[in-house]
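Support request, please re-run this one:
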Amino acid sequence: MEKGTPEDSSRSEAERITREAVDWFVKLEGAGPLKRAAFVRWLQVSKQHIDEYLAVTEVWRECGEVIGPGYSRENLIQEALGGRTTH
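Re-run finished. Output below.
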């Protein structure tokens, strides 16, 4: 069985951090103090966590410019789910 290259491992790690950053972006909507504290701890793990989270927020900002004002994350999620609730 072949082992992955260091580049594969690095790419996997970067993809994992990106997924986590997206997850945090979604989870922070209406988050309480415990969730926010957990988020801060996640950010403190590495500069890459901070960079990825900022990249996610930038993508969201750019999407807002494209789709126009008045849309929140929750509105878009609801629309994507066809009105089903996310809770």
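Residues 62 and 68 are 10 Å apart (CA to CA). The chain has a mean pLDDT of 82.
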